[in-house]
Design a protein that fits this description.
Number of helices: 6
Strand content: 15-25%
Number of domains: 1
Length: 201
């Protein structure tokens, strides 16, 4: 288990980033993404638990506050570099082996659709060691199993420090299942992401 000191070590070979959050997640994500430069080269795919019944405005809210392009994920869309994707309400979001996005309405996971586990597990199967998965504040256990799967597939795992999380249930559930590569504050997670460089294989 590492914590990142003043200058985070560079992690080579990351091709994509997946992030999950629930209660307290909007503020947490704004803090993390606020650290990113406009030319950030990696795709970031995010599940934030949402109410089903209304259209999500997450992409619009974050597009005004984040330097990189922000969109709501669309079915069969090829994942583009340097783009931040949000799962929309009412659909699971997964990553296909051809590195496209897929939306589905299968059963809820931990009472959630979109579910973080769904995204994390599919992305781990596609990207393997090229994936970084980050789990933030939240009030249920969604994401813990998916994060452990990312680790099993050789990916890099990051959990928000539960002492800092607005709701610590989700980070604690992840820590109960596996030891992540990093347990960090939000600002250090942002710095870690900003240090990643896209290098095509």
């Amino acid at each position: 288990m590492n914590t990142v000191a003043a200058g985070p070590a560079r992690i080579p070979g990351i091709e994509a980033i997946v992030i999950g959050a629930s209660a307290g997640g909007v503020e947490a994500l704004l803090t993390v993404f606020g650290e990113l430069p406009s030319d950030f080269g990696l795709p970031i795919i995010t599940v934030l638990h949402l109410p089903d019944e209304r259209r999500s405005q997450l992409a619009e809210v974050f597009d005004r506050r984040v330097a990189m392009p922000v969109v709501e994920a669309r079915d069969k869309e090829t994942i583009r570099l340097g783009t931040l994707y949000f799962a929309g309400p009412g659909y699971h979001l997964s990553v296909e082996h051809d590195r496209s996005l897929s939306l589905s309405q299968e059963d809820r996971v931990h009472h959630s659709r979109p579910a973080i586990d769904y995204l994390f597990e599919s992305a781990a199967d596609t990207y393997g060691p090229g994936l970084m998965a980050i789990l933030l504040t939240g009030a249920n256990h969604d994401g813990a199993r998916g994060l452990a799967h990312v680790k099993q597939q050789g990916g890099t795992t990051v959990v928000q420090d539960p002492a800092e999380a607005r709701v610590a249930v989700m980070p604690r559930a992840a820590l109960a299942l596996h030891t992540p590569d990093h347990i960090l504050s939000l600002s250090r997670i942002g710095s870690l992401l900003a240090s990643l460089e896209y290098s095509p294989c």
